[in-house]
Amino acid sequence: METLYLGIVIFLFMLAVFDLLVGVSNDAVNFMNSAVGAKVAKFRTIVIIAALGVFVGAVSSNGMMDIARHGIFHPVNFSFYDLMCIFLAVMVTDVVLLDIFNTLGLPTSTTVSMVFELLGGTFVLAILKIIGDETGMLSLGDMMNTEKALSVIMAIFLSVAIAFVAGTVVQYISRIIFTFNYKKHLSWTIGIFGGIAVTALGYFIVIQGLASASFMTKESMQWVLDNTPMLVGACLVVSTVLMQILHWCRVNVFKIIVLLGTFSLALAFAGNDLVNFIGVPLAGFSSYTDYVANGAGVDPHNFMMDSLMASAKTPVVFLIAAGLVMVYALATSKKAQNVIKTSVDLARQEEGDEMFGSSGLARLIVRRATNFNDFMVRNIPAGMRNWINSRFNKDDVILENGAAFDMVRASVNLVLSGLLIIIGTTMKLPLSTTYVTFIVAMGTSLADRAWSRESAVYRITGVLSVIGGWFITAFTAFTICAVVTFVMYYASFVGMFLFIVLAVFLLVRSNIKFGKKEKLEDQDNIFKRMIQSKDKAEVLALLREHVKDTLAFYVDFAEKNYVKVTDGFINEDLKSLRKAMNATDEEKKMLKKRRRKEILGLRRLPMTVAIEKNTWFHLGSNSCEEMLYCLKRICEPCKEHVDNNFNPVPAEYVQEFLPMRERLCDLMERTRACILANDYTDADKILKEGDDLKNSISSLRKQQMNHIQEADSTYLKANMVYLNILQESQELVSIWRHLLRASRFFQADYVPQESSEIALAEEK
């Protein structure tokens, strides 16, 4: 029996390693997004500074593990077996849940997930124990600490609202002071700004990062608290003078602030959030050692865990090991970069590829905000309005190569996040570092006018998705852990083993899928280069390359899906038809993203070139969309026909259709080859053969209409579906002919006006 429990404890530590890996990947956004977004240094340098902060924070932590020992439940009323079920369920749920969020690229709170998992597992066993209590003396308050859940929920609302308003106001004032061309407006203000920032971050490191360090005795911490005004004042004076001198020495003070802020938030994160990752396994280990030492031979169902009421004393070796794992995760995790990318993209200054679509609530918010802005414009004097607009002139923005926003905003993000967390700690509000840092970044981006009318609805949808994910985290963590704990409690070691296997399987599958997704995303480097390039000629060349790939891809997709749909109808393969339908719907979404990227590239071209290419670009893009709609109009009747088990299409129709389909596919393949090679020598020949094919399909249509009049009514439905296929096939030929011409003229260096008019007239 003891051996089985030892195996569970070992697996708890194995899951703790996974939890550290996925948890750090998620929380890296808390302290790295500002430095990465502003490109203050190479990514490797930022990782080294953050890793140093994480390691120092982890090693100097005294292991604030009490929340996992007696912060949520009262262990005196739980047996050793009860708590092992809860601890294992918490770790299995936590690892899988955080990995899902990382894969989706959405930052979430490790604090909330752990607290609500503990609540879920404790709640189920508390209810079971109350039901089984013959004395009737036990109550829910005796079993669990319900106040913790309420404090966390209140902290969510408070941190989101306060952080957003504070971020917007402070960044607005900072931008008015420094403007986007901040290097021209530093003079004496940079020393004051730098002094305040360094003082705030230094105080944050001491109070939030090192307050729980093993070398910080109660006496020394009390001395710091008693002399806080003096220490803050002295630090403010010294750091202000030092920052001003560094500015005179041509040192970028903003870069120092951002890197120091990255270190301080990483240190505080590791020191305070370490309990979220290893608190539960250490509580399980402590329970096991107590059981072995005092309860050998005793029924684990009756051995109560009074020992967990004592405060945790975490061995230094565990803290060092945890710090090393966190550093490794930070340096190697691709998912950490994925989560950071979400936060940076939602806050970037320039327009670009939007990760999220639009939602009804986001559109309503944008509409109301636009109306409010119009009201303010009408009531603010023109002189003041012009002066404010001059301070927000984005044409003068100073961005590092590839940066999403400048160093002024990155500095405000980090300093303000640190200050809000200090205020929350002082007021004993359990603020989440994830909530504060993310929402501050959103508020500062709004103040910087980064959310234009072209992108606001997408950005707000993204923010709402992330915030919604936080609330879903709490509900999901509570529910899943409650179910897992219930099954483990009754299924004993069999249930535990099955959930262990399931957790490992889900983690492996998730990482395999993420690897495939990452390869697909890395393929669109053309767009990144196009947005970052300042050379108009290079932008045009990259745009041509991007459009060429898009058109070639959709010709290839249309051909393959056309074959799949028609084969599915002929062979009555419902599964194939469903896959074709889903694939078409998915590509419709992807086409919108591709089109938006290419429109952003088109807007970066010189006006004369953009006007010349505009018609052909939209003709090609619309042709891609029409091909997808055409495929859907073919697929829907075929799927309905097969799904209803109607009579199959007669064999003679199949024999006359397949040669026509082969001709159509051959011409589409030749069209794709022309586009990819950017060689339109045979374009006229392909267009002529396409025109002949349209006539052939038209003849087949007329022939089929005669068949319908004469044929047996038994095959009427199949005949109608076949007629629809012929009609849409003829339309498909017209569409890819339009697409070929659009690509030909878009890729051309110069298109004479008369040629354009003739081509457009022919299309009509």
Automatic annotation (TrEMBL):
Pfam family, one: PHO4
Compartment annotation: Membrane
Membrane-topology descriptor: Multi-pass membrane protein
TM annotation in the entry: 6-29, 41-60, 80-101, 113-132, 152-174, 186-210, 230-249, 256-278, 312-331, 410-427, 463-487, 493-512
SUPFAM superfamilies reported for this sequence: PhoU-like (SSF109755)
Signal sequence range: none
Keywords: Membrane, Phosphate transport, Transmembrane, Transmembrane helix, Transport
One example of a Gene Ontology biological process annotation: phosphate ion transmembrane transport
Family: Belongs to the inorganic phosphate transporter (PiT) (TC 2.A.20) family.
Protein name: Phosphate transporter
